[in-house]
Every structure is written in structure tokens, then in C-alpha cells.
Design goal:
Layout (H helix, E strand, L loop, with lengths): L2 E6 L4 H10 L8 E8 L1 E7 L3 H7 L7 E7 L14 E2 L5 E9 L2 H10 L12 H9 L4 H9 L4 E9 L5 E6 L4 E4 L4 E4 L11 E4 L4 E5 L4 E5 L2 E3 L3 E3 L4 H5 L6 H7 L1 H12 L18 E5 L1 H18 L3 E5 H4 L10 E6 L5 H13 L2 E6 L5 H5 L2 E4 L12 H17 L7 H20 L1 H11 L4 E6 L4 H15 L2 E6 L17 E5 L5 H13 L4 E6 L11 E5 L7 H19 L18
Helix pairs in contact: 1-2, 4-5, 8-13, 8-14, 9-13, 9-16, 14-18, 15-18, 16-18
The protein binds 6-O-phosphono-alpha-D-glucopyranose (G6P).
6-O-phosphono-alpha-D-glucopyranose binds next to helix 9.
Amino acid sequence: MCGIVGYIGHREAQPVLLNCLGRLEYRGYDSCGIAIPGNGIEVYKDAVRVAQLEKSVPQNGANIGIGHTRWATHGKPSQINAHPHTDCDGRIAVVHNGVVYNFQRLKDQLVAEGHTFRSETDTEVIPHLIEKYYRGDLEEAVKRSLLEINGSYAIVVLDQGSHRLVAARKESPLIIGIGDREWFIASDVPAILDYTDRVIYLEDGDVAVVTPEEERITNDGKEVAREEHLIPWSIDEAEKSGYEHFLIKEIHEQPKAIQNTLRGYLSAVEPAIELGVDIDADDILIQACGTSYHAGLVGKYIIEELAGVPVRVEIASEFNYDHTVLGKTMVIGITQSGESADTLLGLKKAKRLGNKTMVITNVLGSSATRITDQVFYIRAGPEISVAATKSFTAQLVALYLIALSAAKIEFKGRASLVEELRKLPVKVQRILDEEDKIARLGKYLAGFDNAFFVARGINFPVALEGALKLKEISYIHAEGYPAGELKHGPFALLTPHTPVIAIAAKDDTYEAVLTNIKEIKARESPVIAVAEESDDEIEKYVDFVIKVPGVEPIFSPVVNSVALQLLAYYAARERGCPIDMPRNLAKSVTVE
Ligand code: G6P
């Protein structure tokens, strides 16, 4: 995700800014840049790593400056779109995290007033607004400009001449680090921990002016005092925001990730969905790898049920041997990274055959987005841990949105489904709040070498994903199976040492799954059920129950998969596995 840094003090700013940016690299980024005063404001930026940027930045003795690592949201990763952005005259430079929702209207207005824009970003309207309102006082110009902005922001502004930084935040984090006659501004604590552990957290609506003598913060025109905190973490701990692993951090980020996916496409008040993509096809073929393939399998149920369009799902590496794709079929690739070689090959094949193509991805400007006719961004934020978690639930949300918008006839209940979608972040948070109970079961599971995951219907792919998560990160051999299929072979493996995790969703599969559970128990396997919190029946038949909040049956894959992610995480943690980087695996597999 984007990262912000700013420095003012007695050191040379350039190496400090680059070091701070380097400390934010773990968050993922596609371009970076810094601005320092020199001959005008000098901006050095490009779609490169921080180490490469460093080579192009001269030491100029300035002891004030700002910097940014960008993870593209508006406009592809490029030199022009990288931050900092400047006004027309290059006298004001801005770094920004967040989204300016009304940027197009502001941009049109500013262009009509004679401003020239260079980038495709929403951010660029900010330096131009500040330029418009600048009457010799940077702070006033920033405050006036922020009144025009509808959206979220953390910004730091540098101008030519006033030797001060102005910072402001709304719904996007920003801190001020206090050193000895020097100040550091950053979006995240790890950026500044090499220099100081004394930190002020800005609050929504705060505008801070930082000079070589002091920091002064106002909110709604009044001066405010913000408490200073001492950061007790090491850099390594801080990058993970206090979590032990990126994986558990990313599991915990799911309410926000889902919110972000929804926010991009659902209007705030109406059940209207504006996707910018369109499924206009007689049938669909989804192809993907790994966890994204499992999202595709859930997608088949979602799209067929809500949109009534037939869907086939293929593992991307097998799709290349498939000779039955019809010209009218729409081919959708699902890929978190947008770089999985097999998924890219599948999309290229579809293009070659003349099929319509779409990609559902998390990474702006990734290779898949350049191949396909249509792109749907899930906006889950960067995923660092090799095993996918938040990208999976965000992919599911993308598929709900696509299916709901593709439904040709206005069906009864669409509005209530949209309302339920909006509640998903809260429901997921409730599972995270009950994490301790699942952690205990994870520790119990850690004592076994084999496990089965079973379910029926829309949760069958969730069983596959639960098994994949467990095997990837804990090295426990696990298989996902349709609950009704276990008796056709795998029963031979059931013993008291083979636990079975059974998803018992309250839908039309429930009774059949309950019957399967009884069959499994008769073979003496321990059973952990994942069931709705209102389900009092299930406890009679199983050894342990993981309770999840009740949701419309079609949304149950979201809550059930979060529970299974936690189960796998705590099993792996108990076994002391290298959770974020399992042996032999890669986050992005760019070979066939
Ligand atoms: C690798 C990762 C998996 C991921 C798969 C597909 O195997 O380890 O976590 O699900 O690639 O990646 P994609 O970026 O295409 O979703």
C-alpha cells in the first residue's frame, strides 16, 4: 500500500527520506519518489525500487523533504503517476495516501481555470488546489483546499520557500515522529523507527505545521494537543503492526479489505452496483491457480445462482489442453498478482480464440490487466504472506458484485442481498473477535499428520481452500472432499488419528452433511464442525464446533473461510512453521 514520509531538521534530508522509504518497502509498492527544495522543488520519482531511485537523487544539502511509495489505484504504475505531484509552477509538492472521490470534477474545474495536469492520478488535484488558494500562507492554502476534497487522505505538503511541512489526515493514518530538533512525518511507524521512538498519532481532521522549531496541530481551526507515545516495538515487529506474522495481519485486515472492495463499486445509499465491467455472454469459463481457482469454484455457484449464466471452472495449467471453448464463452481469469504464468497463458489463449476476456485481480497494471478486455480490481491492498487470505475473500466479494450486477432480470431480494453484502465486514470482524477459541482448536489440530475437510454445495470449494491453507502453512497433509464422496474411498483412511473438519452451513445441504458427519463419527475420526452460531443441534454429533455468525447462505463461504484460515494459522504456529514463507512456495508463480 502507499507509504508517506517527510523530514525536517538538521540532517541532510535525502538519505533520511530514502532510508524511511526503504523501511516501508515491505508493504508492497510499484513506484516511489521524493521531493526536496533546490532549484525550485526538485522531484525524483519513477516506477523503480527505492535502491534504484537512490542512484538518481543527488545530495543537495537540503534538510527538508517528502517522499512516497505508491501502490497504484488511479492510473498505472509509471514515472508520471508516481508521487510527489506538483502544481503548475513546480513550487508546491504533495504526497498523498487515500482516494479523492470527486477528483474528476475538481480536475475538470481546475483545467477550465488554466491548470495543466500531467498524471492520471486523483492526487494531482491537491497541489493544484493548493496553488489556486495560495496567498502566501501554505497552511491556509492547504486548509482551504481540503474543504473541496471529498474522500480520504493523509498528505504532506512541501513548498518552495517557507521551510515548513504541512500535514493533514482524514481516514488514512499519519504520524509525527519527534527527534532532537528534528521531525519525521510518516504513514507508518516502521518508517521512522531508525531515528526515533517518540510518536504523535494525528487524528481525523488534524492539520499539522512542522517547522525546525516545533510542531503545531489544529483541528477545525482550534489548536489541539496530541499525546506523545513511546513505541515499544522493534522495526520488524512494527512492520507487522505488532502481529507475529503477515499472514495473521492479513487475516485481520479482511473486514477492511472487503469494505474496500465494496466501497469501490457499491453506491453508499442505493443498492446500485457500478462495476465498469459487463458480463454479456451466454456462458463463462473461469480459469485460475491455487487459492484463486478455489474462488473461481465458489464463483460458479454464485454466478449460476444469481445471474443464471452457466459457468465452467478450470485449473489454468489444464485449460491449455482444453479444446472445447466456444467462441461466445467469456473467459475470466482470477489472479491476485495478475502475474501467474498459467493464468496469463490461459487468457492469451482465450484472446487468440477471439473470446471476450476479463481478469479479476488485486494488482493494478499487472500483466493480466494488459491482456484482457475488461479488468475488475478487488482492492484488497498488498498481500505479503505467500498464502493468500484477504485476496480470497475479496475475490469472493468481487464475484458477488459481478453476479448481482449481471442478473438480467431484477429479482426479488436483490436489495436485501446487497444489504447483507454490506454487513459482511462486521460479520467477519465477529469471527476475528472470537479468535482465541479457534486458536485452541488450531493447536489441537497441530498434533495430527493428516486431515480431511468436507462440505457440500457452495462450501465444497471452501473445504478445498481450508485444506490448501492447512497444508501450505502447517505442512499437515490435508484433503478437501465433497462430504458425500468420502465414503467412496477416503473412508479407508479414517481412524481416531485423522480429524475431519466439516462445514455444516445452514442451507439445503445441512441435513445431508449431518448424515455424513454421523457416518464419519462411526469410523471414530474426531470431527470439528464449522456451523452457524444459532445451531444448537450440531454439538450433539461432533467433538468441537467453530461457531460463525449467521449470513444469507450464499455468503457463507466468506465467514467459513475466515474461520478455516485462523484454524490453519494456529495449527502452523503451534508447529513452529515459517508461516509467511512456506518451504518451496512462491507468492507469484511466473513459470508454467
Ligand atoms: C501461488 C501462491 C498461492 C496463489 C497462487 C495463484 O501458488 O502461493 O497463494 O493462490 O499462486 O496466485 P494468483 O496471484 O494468480 O492468484
